[in-house]
Structures are given as structure tokens and as C-alpha cells.
Amino acid sequence: MALEYPSDLKYLDSHEYVRVEGETATIGISAFAVDQLGDIVFVELPDVDDTLEKGETFGTVESVKAVEDMYAPVSGTVIEQNSTVVDAPETIVEDPYGAGWLLKIKLSNPDEANEALSADEYRAKVEGE
């Protein structure tokens, strides 16, 4: 199965993605990460109003294979947590770029997203691994 890497997203080497819309960023994990993890059984996310700094750990995703830290692709304040994925972590596996998003944050520095990888750069990196 070919994995998708939507071109409207930016990606980190650590497999998080960010979608920037105005001052809001939606953060999740890529289809590649989901494919590597397998069945996701638990997600730990920061609370609304928590502040994230780019590059810092913001939570964990646990699968039957491993527990992985997730890293903030941008800095900002959490304005929404996806309660669906907390209650039903398999949503991330089923739709990582849609219903399986993790957080929405209000950006403190919108330019940070430009430092992440484009879809083509990310695809080349993960498919070349």
C-alpha cells in the first residue's frame, strides 16, 4: 500500500506533521509513523492552554510495538485537543491526516513551520530509509 503525504502539510524527521491555517496549526503524526507503529492503543496529549516549544516533547503515542515521544513541529499554545483520538486511538491509524489529528495550537511564531520538510522532501527521506 502506498502511503500518502499530503502536500499542504509540513513534516518533521520525527514523523509529526503540521498544517498551518492562519494563526492555527493542526499537529498529527504521519501515515509513515502510523505504518511503523502498527496498532495504536494509547495517546497522551497536553492539555488546552499548555504551551509548546518547537522541538520539545509534547506527548506519547503507544502501540503494541513501542512507546514513542512526539515532538512539537512549531511553538504555540494548545487551543484544542482531539478527544476522539484519546478515547479511540485507532482513529489515528484509520485517518492520520483527517479525523486522526492530535492538537490544534495558536502559533507564537508562524515562520517556524517553514523550517519543516515539504511532502516531497519527507517522502524522499522515509522511502529512502
Summarize the structure.
The chain has 129 residues and is α+β, with helices and mostly antiparallel strands. It has helices spanning 31-37, 83-87, 90-94, 119-127, and strands at residues 10-11, 16-21, 24-29, 40-44, 51-52, 57-63, 67-71, 76-81, 103-107.
Give an overview of the whole structure.
The chain has a single domain (10-121), classed as OB fold (Dihydrolipoamide Acetyltransferase, E2P) (Beta Barrel). It is globular. The two termini are 17 Å apart. The protein is of the alpha+beta class. It contains four helices and nine strands; from the N terminus they run E-E-E-H-E-E-E-E-E-H-H-E-H. The longest helix has 9 residues, at 119-127. The strands form two sheets. A six-stranded antiparallel beta sheet has the order 1-2-3-9-8-5. Strands 4-6-7 form a three-stranded antiparallel beta sheet. A hairpin with a 2-residue loop joins strand 2 (16-21) and strand 3.
CATH topology: OB fold (Dihydrolipoamide Acetyltransferase, E2P)
Supply the number of helical segments: 4
What sort of overall outline do the alpha carbons produce when their principal axes are compared? Answer: globular
Number of folding domains?
A: 1
Indicate the mean pLDDT.
95
Q: Radius of gyration over alpha carbons? A: 13 Å
Uncertain parts? none
Question: Notable features of this structure?
Answer:
alpha+beta, OB fold (Dihydrolipoamide Acetyltransferase, E2P), Biotin_lipoyl
